[in-house]
Design brief:
The chain is an all-alpha fold and about 100 residues long. It contains four helices and no strands. The protein has a domain at about 55-99. Helix content is about 45%, strand content about 0%. The termini are far apart.
Length: about 100
């Protein structure tokens, strides 16, 4: 009789612990909101940008706001250098002026 109660207790404890641990994990649902429905919408907004002329307010109106859109990032000087100057064979003088 004691063995059956012991096994029952172990099973109940296992079930309780395994179901309570599940609540600690995330559900895996992650939805990113974007101002563009399709790639064509994003490309159309990007094509309206004129380097050196488009203001930050115009960029925000086009959907390029890093504070509300998680798909947009503000690049630091080091980020820009690592993207455009990946090795020593490319010099800063070789880049187009707007960069």
């Amino acid at each position: 009789m004691k063995k059956s109660y012991g096994k029952l207790f172990i099973w109940v404890a296992f079930i309780v612990l395994s179901t309570s641990c599940r609540s600690l994990f995330s559900s895996g649902s992650n939805i990113v909101k974007s101002p563009w429905k399709t790639f064509a919408d994003a490309k159309a907004a990007f094509d309206q940008i004129v380097p050196g002329q488009t203001s930050t307010n115009e960029l925000k109106a086009l959907g390029y706001n890093p504070f509300t859109n998680s798909n947009v990032k503000i690049l630091t000087y080091l980020d820009v250098m690592s993207r455009f100057l990946p090795n020593v064979s490319i010099r800063k003088e070789d880049l187009p002026r707007p960069v």
